[in-house]
Amino acid sequence: MPTASITPTLETRLSRPARFIASDTLLSSLQSVLVDLIELNLQAKQAHWNVVGPNFHDVHRHLDLIVTTARDTADGVAERMRAVGGIPDGVSSTVADTTGLRAYPRGEVTTRATIDLISDRIYATVANVRALQPAVAEEDSVTADLLNSTIAQFEQHAWLLSSENRTPTS
Ligand SMILES: [Fe+2]
Protein backbone atom coordinates (compact mmCIF):
# COMPACT_ATOMS: atom_id res chain seq x y z
CA MET A 1 0.00 0.00 0.00
CA PRO A 2 1.56 3.34 -1.00
CA THR A 3 2.21 5.86 1.78
CA ALA A 4 0.80 9.38 1.45
CA SER A 5 3.36 12.07 0.77
CA ILE A 6 3.65 14.81 3.38
CA THR A 7 5.19 17.18 0.81
CA PRO A 8 2.52 19.56 -0.59
CA THR A 9 2.02 19.28 -4.30
CA LEU A 10 2.57 22.36 -6.47
CA GLU A 11 -1.16 22.53 -7.03
CA THR A 12 -1.82 22.55 -3.30
CA ARG A 13 0.72 25.30 -2.67
CA LEU A 14 -0.64 27.51 -5.46
CA SER A 15 -4.19 27.19 -4.20
CA ARG A 16 -3.28 28.08 -0.61
CA PRO A 17 -4.91 31.41 0.36
CA ALA A 18 -1.75 33.26 1.39
CA ARG A 19 -2.69 36.80 0.37
CA PHE A 20 -2.71 39.43 3.10
CA ILE A 21 -5.84 41.58 3.07
CA ALA A 22 -5.72 44.79 5.11
CA SER A 23 -8.40 45.70 7.62
CA ASP A 24 -10.66 48.69 6.98
CA THR A 25 -8.77 50.50 9.74
CA LEU A 26 -5.43 50.01 8.00
CA LEU A 27 -6.84 51.09 4.64
CA SER A 28 -8.40 54.15 6.26
CA SER A 29 -5.02 55.06 7.75
CA LEU A 30 -3.31 54.76 4.37
CA GLN A 31 -6.03 56.85 2.73
CA SER A 32 -5.47 59.55 5.34
CA VAL A 33 -1.73 59.57 4.61
CA LEU A 34 -2.36 59.55 0.87
CA VAL A 35 -4.47 62.72 0.78
CA ASP A 36 -1.92 64.62 2.86
CA LEU A 37 0.91 63.55 0.54
CA ILE A 38 -1.05 64.62 -2.54
CA GLU A 39 -1.88 67.97 -0.92
CA LEU A 40 1.75 68.43 0.13
CA ASN A 41 2.83 67.69 -3.44
CA LEU A 42 0.49 70.44 -4.73
CA GLN A 43 1.44 72.96 -2.05
CA ALA A 44 5.17 72.47 -2.52
CA LYS A 45 4.75 73.04 -6.27
CA GLN A 46 2.73 76.19 -5.64
CA ALA A 47 5.53 77.33 -3.32
CA HIS A 48 8.19 76.42 -5.89
CA TRP A 49 6.56 78.68 -8.48
CA ASN A 50 5.79 81.68 -6.29
CA VAL A 51 8.67 81.97 -3.84
CA VAL A 52 10.66 85.23 -4.01
CA GLY A 53 13.50 86.79 -2.07
CA PRO A 54 16.95 86.02 -0.61
CA ASN A 55 18.38 82.58 -1.39
CA PHE A 56 15.65 82.13 -3.97
CA HIS A 57 17.45 79.57 -6.08
CA ASP A 58 18.26 77.09 -3.31
CA VAL A 59 14.75 77.26 -1.85
CA HIS A 60 13.15 77.02 -5.30
CA ARG A 61 15.18 73.90 -6.11
CA HIS A 62 14.66 72.26 -2.72
CA LEU A 63 10.90 72.71 -3.04
CA ASP A 64 10.97 70.65 -6.23
CA LEU A 65 12.80 67.86 -4.38
CA ILE A 66 9.98 67.91 -1.82
CA VAL A 67 7.45 67.73 -4.68
CA THR A 68 9.21 64.64 -6.01
CA THR A 69 9.30 62.95 -2.61
CA ALA A 70 5.62 63.72 -2.00
CA ARG A 71 4.61 62.38 -5.41
CA ASP A 72 6.71 59.22 -5.07
CA THR A 73 5.61 58.42 -1.52
CA ALA A 74 1.95 59.06 -2.46
CA ASP A 75 2.38 56.57 -5.28
CA GLY A 76 3.89 54.05 -2.89
CA VAL A 77 1.05 54.41 -0.40
CA ALA A 78 -1.65 54.19 -3.09
CA GLU A 79 -0.07 51.11 -4.65
CA ARG A 80 0.33 49.51 -1.22
CA MET A 81 -3.43 50.02 -0.75
CA ARG A 82 -4.05 48.20 -4.05
CA ALA A 83 -1.67 45.40 -3.10
CA VAL A 84 -3.49 44.68 0.17
CA GLY A 85 -7.05 44.90 -1.12
CA GLY A 86 -7.88 48.60 -0.97
CA ILE A 87 -8.95 51.28 -3.43
CA PRO A 88 -7.09 54.60 -3.08
CA ASP A 89 -9.10 57.78 -3.64
CA GLY A 90 -6.87 60.56 -4.93
CA VAL A 91 -9.36 62.75 -6.78
CA SER A 92 -9.05 66.48 -6.13
CA SER A 93 -12.37 66.83 -4.29
CA THR A 94 -11.46 64.04 -1.86
CA VAL A 95 -8.05 65.58 -1.24
CA ALA A 96 -9.53 69.05 -0.64
CA ASP A 97 -12.27 67.71 1.65
CA THR A 98 -10.17 65.36 3.78
CA THR A 99 -6.57 66.56 4.03
CA GLY A 100 -5.40 67.66 7.43
CA LEU A 101 -3.08 70.29 5.95
CA ARG A 102 -3.95 73.96 6.12
CA ALA A 103 -4.45 75.75 2.79
CA TYR A 104 -1.46 77.42 1.14
CA PRO A 105 -1.66 81.17 0.42
CA ARG A 106 -2.03 82.44 -3.14
CA GLY A 107 0.39 84.89 -4.74
CA GLU A 108 4.07 85.55 -4.19
CA VAL A 109 5.52 84.48 -0.84
CA THR A 110 8.93 85.43 0.59
CA THR A 111 11.55 82.75 1.00
CA ARG A 112 11.42 83.12 4.80
CA ALA A 113 7.62 82.68 4.94
CA THR A 114 7.73 79.89 2.36
CA ILE A 115 10.20 77.93 4.46
CA ASP A 116 7.97 78.25 7.54
CA LEU A 117 4.80 77.38 5.63
CA ILE A 118 6.17 74.28 3.92
CA SER A 119 8.05 73.09 7.02
CA ASP A 120 4.77 73.38 8.93
CA ARG A 121 2.96 71.27 6.29
CA ILE A 122 5.70 68.64 6.29
CA TYR A 123 5.61 68.34 10.08
CA ALA A 124 1.79 68.12 10.01
CA THR A 125 2.01 65.33 7.43
CA VAL A 126 4.61 63.48 9.50
CA ALA A 127 2.63 63.95 12.73
CA ASN A 128 -0.37 62.24 11.15
CA VAL A 129 1.76 59.31 9.96
CA ARG A 130 3.44 58.98 13.36
CA ALA A 131 0.05 58.96 15.11
CA LEU A 132 -1.24 56.18 12.84
CA GLN A 133 1.98 54.18 12.84
CA PRO A 134 1.59 52.07 16.05
CA ALA A 135 -1.69 50.52 14.90
CA VAL A 136 -0.32 50.02 11.39
CA ALA A 137 2.78 48.28 12.76
CA GLU A 138 0.65 46.01 14.91
CA GLU A 139 -1.30 44.82 11.88
CA ASP A 140 1.32 44.78 9.11
CA SER A 141 5.06 45.34 9.49
CA VAL A 142 5.54 45.69 5.72
CA THR A 143 3.18 48.66 5.50
CA ALA A 144 4.82 50.05 8.63
CA ASP A 145 8.20 49.93 6.84
CA LEU A 146 6.73 51.97 3.98
CA LEU A 147 5.44 54.58 6.40
CA ASN A 148 8.72 54.65 8.32
CA SER A 149 10.54 55.41 5.10
CA THR A 150 8.06 58.21 4.39
CA ILE A 151 8.61 59.70 7.83
CA ALA A 152 12.40 59.57 7.49
CA GLN A 153 12.42 61.25 4.08
CA PHE A 154 10.16 64.10 5.15
CA GLU A 155 11.84 64.69 8.48
CA GLN A 156 15.09 65.10 6.56
CA HIS A 157 13.44 67.55 4.16
CA ALA A 158 11.98 69.53 7.06
CA TRP A 159 15.36 69.72 8.79
CA LEU A 160 17.12 70.86 5.62
CA LEU A 161 14.47 73.41 4.73
CA SER A 162 13.82 74.86 8.19
CA SER A 163 17.56 75.26 8.83
CA GLU A 164 17.52 78.10 6.28
CA ASN A 165 15.59 80.24 8.78
CA ARG A 166 17.52 79.27 11.91
CA THR A 167 20.21 81.07 13.84
CA PRO A 168 22.78 79.24 15.98
CA THR A 169 21.54 78.37 19.46
CA SER A 170 24.83 79.32 21.18
FE1 LIG B 1 10.08 74.12 -11.88
Any overview of this molecule?
- There is one protein chain.
- The protein has 170 residues and is an all-alpha fold.
- The chain has one domain (22-165): Ferritin.
- It is 70% helix and 2% strand.
- The protein contains six helices and two strands, in the order H-H-E-H-H-E-H-H.
- The chain has helices spanning 10-15, 24-50, 56-83, 92-98, 111-139, 141-162; strands at 51-52, 109-110.
- Strands 1-2 form a two-stranded parallel ribbon.
- Helix 5 (111-139) packs antiparallel against helix 6.
- The longest helix is centred in the last third of the chain and has 29 residues, at 111-139.
- The chain starts with 9 loop residues before the first helix and ends in an 8-residue tail after the last helix.
- Fe (ii) ion binds at residues 48, 64.
On the 0 to 100 scale, the average pLDDT is 93
Q: Give the N-to-C terminal Cα separation.
A: 86 Å
Tell me the helix content. Answer: over 70%
In CATH, what is the homologous superfamily?
Ferritin, core subunit, four-helix bundle
Given helix and strand content, the structural type is mainly alpha
How many structural domains? Answer: 1
Largest sheet: 2 strands, parallel
